[in-house]
Amino acid sequence: MKNVAFLLLLLLTVACKDSKDKTNGDTASEESITAQAIIDKAIDKACNGNCDRAEIAFTFRDKAYKSKRFDGEYELERITKDSVDVTRDQLSNFGFTRWVNDIKLELADTTALKLGNSVNSVHYFAQLPYGLNAPAVQKKLIGTDTVKGEPYYEIKVTFKKEGGGTDHDDEFMYWVHQDDFTVDYLAYSYETNGGGIRFREAYNPRRVEGIRFVDYNNYKTDDLSTPLSQLDDLFEENKLPLLSKIENENIEVKLLNQW
């Protein structure tokens, strides 16, 4: 009887240890996930390995945009036409240039920087989450939350001063779906022109050559003290007025084998 009792005690001890180890393993796995790992997965899901070697063209608010990326080199373009002129703004590894009717203009550095930022901004939002692994990007996992009953990671993004551009003080928040790893919501605060806060809801997802694109409902709040992490709650409570729609049309993608 003593031997049987000892054997039962031993089995119970082992079982408890296995259960504890399993629980600790699950907890460690949950705790070990990082903002970097989440963003890596989101980019992988959105790009399908193609964003680094693609030529992408689309129309946004009657302007034509085109990006070309291959092996670390890039060109971002915006083409604007009116009744007289065709203006082509180009941002690349080598800087910014503006062409009007194929004539290159000489621009002040401050003007070139401002125009380059405006071109980059449209391409940045059109190709999210690609770009969130740029050297100046700083990512932090704030926590988890639910939006419309779906589970999300909340990722805060800030920028280093060096390499972060003139708007390096801007802050972003991304809601990444815990199962699908899609960026379904984002928010940001900015300082230019008196500052502001925006919240975007992604809709109309589609894939072209394996790359995922979305449009956005663009909401605002006039209370600039609102933490970005609270905007999803205000959105669900219908307390954010719709400001505009961000729609990219006529999307075309060409996969590249060389520059």
Can you lay out the helices and strands and say which pair or pack?
Layout: H1 2-32, H2 35-47, E1 53-60, E2 63-70, E3 73-81, E4 86-92, E5 95-100, E6 103-104, H3 109-126, E7 137-147, E8 150-159, E9 171-177, E10 183-190, E11 196-208, E12 211-221, H4 231-236, E13 242-246, E14 249-255
Report on the structure:
The chain is built from four helices and 14 strands. The longest helix has 31 residues, at 2-32. It has a single domain, classed as Clam (outer membrane lipoprotein receptor (LolB), chain A), CATH 2.50.20. Mean pLDDT is 88; it is low at 1-30. The chain has helices at 2-32, 35-47, 109-126, 231-236, and strands at 53-60, 63-70, 73-81, 86-92, 95-100, 103-104, 137-147, 150-159, 171-177, 183-190, 196-208, 211-221, 242-246, 249-255. With 259 residues, the chain is an alpha+beta fold. InterPro entries: DUF6503. This is Deoxyribose-phosphate aldolase. It comes from Marixanthomonas spongiae.
Write a compact overview of the structure shown:
This is Deoxyribose-phosphate aldolase. With 259 residues, the protein is of the alpha+beta class.
